[in-house]
Design brief:
170 residues, alpha/beta, three-stranded mixed sheet, 8 helices
Length: 170
């Protein structure tokens, strides 16, 4: 009951807030993000990893199952079979392999991780903010809903975006 409470009372609110936040979250990952730390890293919208960093779904190594959303994120990022393998093997996945698998968007030198993450965030901050927020909403919903429902949602979101000052017709 203590473990269940920790997942539901601590990790679930954090993960749900991350997913529903109307701004992109860039995870700058250094060292080893293992267990729930890996779950939090995967909950980020974008991930930049230091070249010497790694992710590790360590749960099975101690007789546990993935939690804090790892099953959901892993399956959507790499597909069922690869996600299952990652979860049951419990091995460290180096940054270069995370990039190949789609678990990381970028890999950079460890010494420049925070500088590069900050530069990426600054770049995104200069982009149309409402469009980014609405795109995040559409992408999250696309993992849950069918094509017809997503096209309807996109139409609604597009209607909202076109009324915002960031919208410019070419």
């Amino acid at each position: 009951d203590q473990v269940r409470s920790a997942v539901l009372d601590h990790y679930k609110p954090l993960i749900m807030r991350m997913v529903t936040l109307p701004k992109p979250i860039i995870g700058a990952i250094n060292g080893v993000a293992a267990g729930a730390g890996a779950s939090i890293a995967l909950a980020c919208d974008l991930r930049i990893m230091a070249d010497d960093a790694s992710l590790m779904e360590a749960f099975s190594n101690i007789g546990l199952v993935p939690d804090a959303g790892s099953s959901w994120f892993l399956t959507r990022l790499v597909g069922y079979s690869r996600a299952f393998e990652i979860a049951i093997e419990g091995a460290r996945i180096p940054a270069s392999r995370c990039l190949e698998l789609g678990l990381a968007n970028r890999v950079t030198l460890a010494d420049s991780l925070l500088v590069d993450a900050h530069a990426w965030a600054q770049h995104l901050a200069q982009r149309p903010t409402l469009a980014i927020a609405l795109t995040k909403q559409a992408m999250i919903q696309a993992t849950e809903r069918g094509l017809e429902a997503i096209i309807d949602l996109e139409a609604d979101l597009q209607d909202a975006a076109v009324q915002y000052p960031d919208h410019h017709l070419l």
